[in-house]
Amino acid sequence: MKIIYLFIAITFSLALNAQVTKVNLKASGLTCSMCSNSINKALKTLDFVENVVADLKTYTFEISFKPNSLVDFDKIKNKVEGAGFSVSEFTALINFNNLHLKIDEPVTIYNKTFLFVNLHEPLLNGLKEIKILNKGFVSPKEFRKNKYPALLPGTFQVTI
Amino acid sequence: MSLIISLRKIKCSIVLVLFSLSGHSQELFSLTEPASNRPAGSIGFRIDNSIMDEINSSRINYHLIPELMVGVSKKITIAANVFFSNRTEVFRKEGGSIYAKYRFVSHDGVQKHFRMAAFSRISFNNSDIHQEEIEMYGHNTGFEIGIIATKLARKVAISSEVSFVKATDNGNKNKFIYGNVNSKAVDHSLSVGKLWLPKEYSTYRQTNINCMVEFLNQLNTGSGKYYMDVAPVVQVIIKSQSRIDIGYRKEISSNMIRTAPNGFFIRLEHTFFNVF
Hints:
Chain A is of the alpha+beta class. Helices cover 28% and strands 38% of the residues of chain A. Residues 9-17 of chain A have low confidence and may be disordered.
């Protein structure tokens, strides 16, 4: 019985090794501190968010997460939009555990599916920062330049 | 005609002066609403006080309008308010209104945006009709429907509103005495805002001071009579959550009967974020 529990714990911790440690997002459509504060407070209501550090000069928000929590990128983006603004840049710091990448093949890590648009590093290990390229996670101008194919729902197009 | 041309020149000069000054800007206008909405899930509470000079007497008209504003979603804001006034000798409740705004255009860029919204107000008022001016915010029963466009660019926030107002009879058997033809008007406003302090943002606790100028005009579609007002406003934002606006509204030009077009106003507002 103890061996079973140990096995479950190891599997769980291995899965957790591929988890999001931080998200950095840049918001657009605002200049005032009250606007920034409405985004800041909205992000803090997410149950998986531990802390938000806002930079009023650059309109960026560094979000850290509660241990062992399921981070939902769409919920983060929706909170910014609910406050009345948009996300113009979204990067996530993820701890990878020997992930092999193949071009055009989505990989599922924990609760997220990623499609890497470039293969500079076919093997990912350790902390890497990935940038989300989906609509609503980049500026409309950048999204229009993007010629990547349409995605299945729930899949994030990313680059390192 | 020459008066209207010189007034237009004054408006353009003021706008150009504000355009040339550097700094960030605010679009939280005082006498008009921007095309942006309140944050979803927020509830704002506002108390509007106006101290207006009666033209034909030494009396002061005091209006108190408490208001509740709700950010229903990123596209919809609704509000409700109650009108109190001492214009009829006794300080009493005169009516109220409900307001809704729907944002249908939103283009965001870094430190800029362009938004458009449609809005409507339905008002009820039981005081007597005492002026040709039609005002859904504290004087007349009726409705207003309009469109707002707001542009925020790094240095300036500019907003313009066009609406149609229709007055009906007031409550308490107070009829609209100027006739059905003269019960409709077109309102237009142009507002410009600029942030003065702080010169550089560092924390949410910093007090923000904004300066704004709003031009408010009405043209009665029946009589052809009009008014043109200007309202400079100083706004203080405390801890990025509360707001105090102090302004003065002044008639620049008009040929319609108005009881008390000039006076000071003070608005206090506090927003509760993420209430629901």
